[in-house]
Amino acid sequence: MSLTGKGMQGRHAFRRLVRAQKKAFGPDVDMSRVAMQEIRKKFYEHAHVTDEQKMQELMQHVDDAESFMRNNIAQGHLSPETGRYRTLS
């Protein structure tokens, strides 16, 4: 089973990362584009992995990346009136 092949696990992992990047970067088109490029690049690099242990390691990386994007990234907007940044909702 490969990450970009017919494996449901790989497709599910890819969709989770896409959803996480959309939540993390929202309206920031440039960062969303770069994040998607990186996600695609990593999945294509590992498209032919068949070793079960390596698959588990890759799935752990997906879990970590998803968690990081969902919990550790905040997009900010500079308020011209106050000169302070506020997070976008």
TrEMBL record:
InterPro entries: Complex1_LYR_LYRM7, MZM1/LYRM7. Keywords: Chaperone, Mitochondrion. One of its GO terms (cellular component) is mitochondrial matrix. GO terms for molecular function: protein folding chaperone. Residues 70-89 are annotated as: Disordered. It is found in: Mitochondrion matrix. The keyword Lipoprotein does not apply. CDD domains: Complex1_LYR_LYRM7. Its main location: mitochondrion. GO terms for biological process: mitochondrial respiratory chain complex III assembly. The keyword Chaperone applies. PANTHER family: COMPLEX III ASSEMBLY FACTOR LYRM7. This is Mitochondrial zinc maintenance protein 1, mitochondrial. It comes from Porphyridium purpureum.
